[in-house]
Write a structure and sequence with these properties.
Blueprint (H helix, E strand, L loop, with lengths): L13 H7 L2 H32 L2 H28 L2 H25 L4 H29 L5 H29 L2 H19 L15 H4 L1 H7 L2 H16 L6 H8 L4 H24 L6 H21 L3 H28 L6 H11 L1 H18 L1 H22 L1 H4 L6
Helix pairs in contact: 2-3, 2-5, 2-6, 2-7, 3-5, 3-15, 3-16, 4-5, 4-7, 5-15, 6-12, 6-14, 9-15, 10-14, 10-16, 10-17, 11-12, 12-14, 13-14, 13-17, 16-17
Length: 414
C-alpha cells in the first residue's frame, strides 16, 4: 500500500527540501519518529495483551485511563519544565525512562510472570514521561525549523511521523505473534536510540526563561489560551472530536471479533489511518493551505466524524481500512492547521506551557477517549459505541462553528 508512494524528498516543494537538508530538523524528526514508533508498537502490544489476558472491553478501556491520569496530574509541570530547562534534555530523559519501562515489560513477558497490574504500572510510566516529553518536544520544533518554514515543517513532521505510525503497528503485530516480549524489547531499543539522537540536536535559537516556579507561572498557558479565541476554539474542538471519535481504541475487538483477523490484522487496522495521513501530508507539503483555513479545519473534522461512522458499522476489512485511511487524512488537515496556529501565535518563552495545554486537550484526550470508548462499548456494544462517537463528532463540529466565529472566519495562518 505504501510502496507506490514516491519518496517525500522527491515530491515536496523547494522550501520543504531545505528542511530535509537541515541537520537540527532531521535529528529532531528522527528522534521523535523513534519515539512514535515505540508508542505505536505499544498501542498494539499492550492492547492485544490486555484483551488476551482479560477478554474485557472495560479493561481495554482502562489502559487509556491509566495512561491519562499521570498526564493530567503532571502535564502543566511538564510545560513549565519545557520553558525553564533545556528542552532537548527534558525529552531525552523522558525517552530513556520509557525505554526502561518497556524493558521491564519485555523481561516479564519473556519470563511469563507479567500481570495486568504490572502492565498498567508500566503504562502509567509511559503517561508520566509523555506529560513532560510532549510539551518539550513540541516547543523544540520552532527552534529547529528555519524562519518562515513553520507550516511546511509541521506538515513534513506529521508525514514522517506517519511513516513510523504505519510501520509501528504492523511491526508490533508481527512481533507480538512471535512472542509478547518481542515488541516490548523493540520499544526499549527505539526509545534509547531516540534519546541519543535528541542529544545530538544543535539549536539555532533557544530561549529559556528563568521565571521561578509559582502557581501563576505553572498555569500561565491556560490564561494565554483563554485570551485567544482562535486557539481556544481549535484546541477544544479537537478535544471533543478525539474524545468522541475514539473508535481506534476498539480496534482489538474489531480485529478479533467483528472482522475476524489476528494480530496482523490489528496491525493493518492501526496502520490504515497513518496511510491516509501520509498521503494527505504529501499534498500539504506541496501546497500549503493559504485561505479559509478555519473553515477547512471544520470541514476536516466533519469528514473525520463521518468516516468514523462508516468504520463503526463496517464488517468488511477493505471498507474498514478505507474508512480509517479517510479518518487519518482528515485528521492531518486539522493537525497541521492547529499546530501551526498555536506555534505561530505563541511567544517562544510560553511555548512549553501553551504546548502543555494543547497536549492535555488533544493528545491526552486520546487516552481518555480510549476509556470512554471502552466504557460505552461495555454498556451498549462495540458498534453502537463507535457509531455514536462518529455522529457526536459531526455534531460538535457544527456547534463549534456557531460558538467560535473567529475561528470559522480565520483566513490565513502566515
Amino acid at each position: 500500500m505504501t510502496s507506490a508512494t514516491p519518496p517525500i524528498s522527491s515530491i515536496v516543494s523547494d522550501g520543504s527540501s531545505v528542511l530535509l537538508r537541515h541537520p537540527p530538523f532531521m535529528f529532531y524528526v528522527a528522534s521523535r519518529s523513534f519515539s512514535r514508533f515505540s508508542s505505536q508498537i505499544a498501542a498494539v502490544a499492550v492492547g492485544w495483551q490486555i484483551y488476551d489476558l482479560t477478554g474485557s472491553a472495560f479493561q481495554l478501556g482502562m489502559v487509556g485511563l491509566v495512561q491519562f491520569l499521570p498526564m493530567l496530574l503532571l502535564v502543566f509541570a511538564g510545560g513549565h519544565a519545557a520553558d525553564r530547562y533545556d528542552r532537548r534534555r527534558v525529552v531525552q530523559i523522558c525517552q530513556i525512562a520509557q525505554g526502561l519501562a518497556a524493558a521491564y515489560l519485555a523481561w516479564g513477558s519473556f519470563a511469563g510472570w507479567i500481570t495486568v497490574p504490572e502492565i498498567f504500572a508500566a503504562v502509567a510510566v509511559f503517561g508520566a514521561a509523555t506529560a513532560f516529553e510532549s510539551p518539550a518536544g513540541a516547543a523544540l520544533l520552532p527552534g529547529v525549523a528555519p524562519e518562515g518554514t513553520m507550516q511546511k515543517a509541521t506538515a513534513l513532521t506529521t508525514g514522517i511521523y506517519q511513516l513510523a505510525t504505519i510501520g509501528g503497528p504492523a511491526l508490533g503485530g508481527v512481533a507480538f505473534a512471535l512472542s509478547p516480549g518481542v515488541p516490548y524489547a523493540l520499544m526499549a531499543g527505539f526509545w534509547v536510540i531516540g534519546g541519543l539522537l535528541n542529544g545530538a540536536i544543535l539549536l539555532e535559537r533557544q530561549i529559556i526563561t528563568k521565571e521561578p516556579p509559582s502557581f501563576g507561572a505553572l498555569f500561565a498557558g491556560v490564561g494565554f489560551v483563554r485570551r485567544n479565541p482562535a486557539i481556544f476554539g481549535t484546541i477544544s474542538l479537537d478535544l471533543f472530536a478525539v474524545l468522541l471519535g475514539g473508535a481506534t481504541a476498539l480496534l482489538p475487538i474489531y480485529a478479533r471479533d467483528i472482522l475476524q483477523t489476528g494480530p496482523w490484522g490489528l496491525g493493518l487496522l492501526r496502520a490504515a489511518p497513518a496511510v491516509g495521513a501520509l498521503l494527505m501530508t504529501v499534498v500539504l507539503a506541496r501546497t500549503s493551505i493559504k485561505r479559509r483555513v478555519g473553515m477547512r479545519m471544520f470541514q476536516a473534522v466533519i469528514v473525520f466524524g463521518l468516516a468514523t461512522s462508516v468504520f463503526a458499522v463496517s464488517e468488511l476489512v477493505w471498507l474498514s481500512l478505507i474508512a480509517l485511511a479517510v479518518m487519518g487524512a482528515a485528521d492531518t488537515i486539522s493537525v497541521v492547521i492547529r499546530v501551526s496556529l498555536v506555534q505561530l501565535s505563541t511567544p517562544d518563552e510560553m511555548r512549553g506551557r501553551v504546548g502543555a495545554v494543547n497536549y492535555l486537550f488533544i493528545n491526552a484526550s486520546n487516552q481518555l477517549g480510549q476509556f470512554e470508548s471502552g466504557l460505552t462499548a461495555a454498556l451498549f456494544g462495540t458498534m453502537p459505541a463507535a457509531l455514536l462517537g462518529g455522529l457526536g463528532t459531526v455534531a460538535v463540529a457544527l456547534l463549534w462553528m456557531k460558538l467560535f466565529p473567529t475561528l470559522r472566519n480565520l483566513e490565513r495562518l502566515e
